[in-house]
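Holo prediction. Input below; ligand is adenosine-5'-triphosphate.
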Amino acid sequence: MEVQGLAPTTTLKENQNVKEAAENELRERLNNQQEKEAEMKELKERLLLMEHRLKQQEQDFRRQRQGNGMEEKTLVDMEEKALRLKKQQKWEMEQTEINDRLIKQHLIFDRQQKEIKELKLALSLTKVGMEDMKSQYLEEFGNLGKQLGTLANAASKYHKVLEENRKLYNQIQDLKGNIRVYCRVRPFLHGQASNMSTISRIDDQNITIASASKNGKDARRNFTFNKVFGPTATQEEIFSDTQPLIQSVLDGYNVCIFAYGQTGSGKTHTMSGPKELNEKTIGVNYRALNDLFYLSEQQIRNSTNKGLSVPDANIVPVRSTAEVIEIMNIGQKNRAVSSTAMNDRSSRSHSCLTIHVQGKELTSGNMLRGCMHLVDLAGSERVDKSEVKGDRLKEAQHINKSLAALGDVIASLAQKSAHVPYRNSKLTQLLQDSLGGQAKTLMFVHMSPEADALSETLSTLKFAERVATVELGAARVNKDNVEVKELKEQIAALKATMTNKGADEPLRTTVFSLDLSRMKPSIVTTNHEEDEIGYPTSNRKPMEEVGNIEIRGDSNRQKQPDNHSEEMLISMESPWPDSYQELGDDDKEASSGEWVDKVVVNNKVDTTSREGDGAQDQNFFQRYINDVRVYPELQLINNAGGKKASLDSHVNQFDFDSDDLENSTSDSSEVELLSQLNVSKIPRGISGGMSKIKKPQANGIKSTDGRNLSNGHVPSPSRKVLNGPNQTTNRTMRQPVSGDGKRSSLRALESKR
Ligand SMILES: Nc1ncnc2c1ncn2[C@@H]1O[C@H](COP(=O)(O)OP(=O)(O)OP(=O)(O)O)[C@@H](O)[C@H]1O
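Structure of the complex:
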């Protein structure tokens, strides 16, 4: 180291400092040098150590390379192992995943199980709740059922009470003798629009008719009847309320059931049924007969009445409904039926089936006699509507007139007039028994539901209302006790004896009724040959006794009993006979007089005291039945007691002639009905005293085919099936015999008079 040019005094210190600095620097450098050397030394040592390791690694490597073959194998093994390990790892992973999933599923399952448990719990709770509710409901239902039962019970009791009330009401009406009125509404016919009905309401006893009044407002009119049957009522229902009347006939009451109503309103349907008859469709006639026969078989009857009544009646003995139906068929054939604009099968005459029943009370020996008229009236019609002309027009006018006469009678009865104009028409004469004779009378009033029949419907119902107010007096049993009967027999015998001597004027007057002679002279002649006029002299009865309605001044009087009888007869009255047409003017004149246009009902001729009645009767029937086979049996034998019962019936058809009305002796006023019928008031004071009795089948009028109810179709009785005897079919009845015998009888009768 070199020191250069230092200044002598001042620089010493500086030199010193520099020296110190240099020395320090040197020292520092030295220290650094030493540090570096130590570092170097340390690096050298580390390098040596690394070299040593490298050597060792080389040695290892060499050793490893020596055992390389073995290592490769190990490597493959290891690779395989690694692969397996991988697979296993993968599998494990999958398993893990699966496990995870399983665990998850398990968890889900557990959760679901839990939920299911909860649901089950809820369900069981709900079930319990439901059970509770169910039991509550059951309890409530039970209670409701009980309440319903109580209500139903109450309702049925109420209905029973109503029914009893109705029956009581009917009984009261019976006691008062009111005519029962049942109203029946026909259904709309095929092809008719059913939305134009005039009926606004129907219940058991009420019917309300709706119509537009003049000022355009709705007008309603209510009508009350004993019973109202709607359009759906069956024939059976219709008959059910009629049944008690049938028993009444056998109990000795007179019964009349008649059908009234506008043309086409269903009268024939009710009384007979439709054209095709079967057990369901048969009408009141058939059902009543069935019941009658059924009841007569249940009771012990014993009678022999050979009575005969209405003009040209044929008496036919019958033993079963089937036989009566055959007879009714004949009557039906004789009935004039024709097609009009209002009804294609319109009845152009009234039809009446009369059944007489006689019996004996075995305990008392009293005789009971009942009589039942089953009447199907011809319908009232407006001739402008029915568009009839010629003969049909005349018929319609006659029908309307006779119905008007019926209206007059009803009006008089309703007003309790002293005089009732029964004599104004044959119809009212025929029904006199039933309209004034303390009979039990039922009227089926019929109505069509169509709007264009409204005015007829209203007048029909008003008429029916008035009919319902008619009090006939309490119905009486036609019963004669034994003593009275014996006395009457004695009187009859005495009268007969006196008549033989020509000494009994009243009897002669009675017997001389021209109608009697006209009615069935040949019948009488046949049966009782000893009398020159054709009456059994020993058996004549005063008209009071034989039930001639004209003889009875007192309409309250009951028909007198026939003598004790032992047989049961049913007779049929045919329409007016040809013989009447054949009568000469003289004959007609002779047969006119008081009886000329009268209908005689129940004109029974007692034959019990005669010998050989059966033979004579057979003779009689042979004359009137156009069948070689004679109705063989007149007797109904009751097995139990060997007793007998008897029935006796007629079927009548009447053509009403205007002269019938001209002979009127009535003071009656014109009924409301009349105004509906295009019928002028019956002229008074026009006498003539002659009735032009018409043939039943006017020219050009077709007869009905008759209803076909052969035995196989004979309806069973409403109470019980009746096994009628075998019947032959096609039994027909001859028209009443006309001829000289008849005329001579008539003349003889006149001359005797
Ligand atoms: N209740 C009913 N059910 C079904 N059809 C009925 C009923 N009533 C009446 N008819 C039918 O109405 C039509 C007229 O009836 P029906 O001939 O009995 O009348 P009607 O009053 O006797 O007439 P007319 O006075 O002209 O003889 C017939 O075709 C009949 O079959």
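The pocket of adenosine-5'-triphosphate is lined by residues 186-187, 189, 261, 263-269, 274, 343, 345-347, 378-379, 446 (CB under 6 Å). That is the main takeaway for now.
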